[in-house]
Amino acid sequence: MFYTTDKRDHGLPHDPFKALVVPRPIGWVSTISADGVPNIAPFSFFNALSDYPPMLIFSVANGKDSVNNVLATGECTCSLATKALVDEMNMSSAAVDSSVSEFNLGNIETAESQMVSPPRVAASPAAFECKLWKSIELPLTPGRPDSGYTSVIVSVVGVYIDDQYIVDGMIDTAAMQPIARLGYMDYSVVSADNMFSLNRPDVAEDGKTATLKSGPWDGSYR
């Protein structure tokens, strides 16, 4: 099949776009409103942009508390959403009034951040403390004045990692069991059963050929 995105004439009961861009990491974004109300919500339009400097991006539907808060205060945290916290993450997605803290709604314990005001999720194995770098208003969909997202780009100024997930100097991702968003109401979890490693190609000194050592990663960065 093929369809054009201007008409969305795919003929399917649900838009397939988000079922094809998978898996998507979940940014569990915590903010504080200008009135001092803590807010937390999960976003699947989320990812890292670079590591030097470390920067993240997440896109939020216009009018949501999270984007309003981060634009007003310039700060947020992004906690890792995991299988153990899936119910708390899901409850925090409720579209409640801006006067309601989703931390209280989902009985989510907070931990104080060190470099920003918004707290992190205490039970999460890792969290990023972030400051706003830039926001970009994405174009509206023609004929849909209620559409529109704002992409928020943040600089990571601090990183929290629960020490129990650092093994031999490396992050034990499988033990953390981070979850990812798929299409519709589907999710996935990263575990030892579905992880594998690869070696990167070795490029010749003249830059014209490359060789590949197949099999699991041998521990050498190339």
Core attributes:
mainly beta; Pnp Oxidase, Chain A; 7-stranded antiparallel β-sheet; 16 strands
What do you see in this structure?
The protein has helices at residues 17-20, 65-73, 86-91, 102-105, 173-176; strands at residues 24-25, 27-32, 38-43, 46-51, 54-61, 75-80, 110-111, 120-121, 126-137, 149-161, 166-167, 170-171, 179-181, 187-189, 202-203, 210-211. With 222 residues, it is mainly β. The chain is globular.
Strand order of the largest sheet: 3-2-6-9-10-5-4
User: Secondary-structure element order, as H and E?
Assistant: HEEEEEHEHHEEEEEEHEEEE
CATH C-level class is Mainly Beta
Tell me the name of the CATH homologous superfamily.
Electron Transport, Fmn-binding Protein, Chain A
Note the total helix count. 5
- Characterize the largest beta sheet: strand count, sense, and whether it forms a barrel: 7 strands, antiparallel
Structural class: mainly beta
Q: How helical, in percent, are the residues?
A: 10-25%
Q: What is the annotated CATH architecture?
A: Roll
Q: What portion of residues belong to β-strands?
A: 25-35%
Q: Could you give the count of β-strands?
A: 16
> If you average the pLDDT, what whole number results?
95
Low-confidence stretches: none
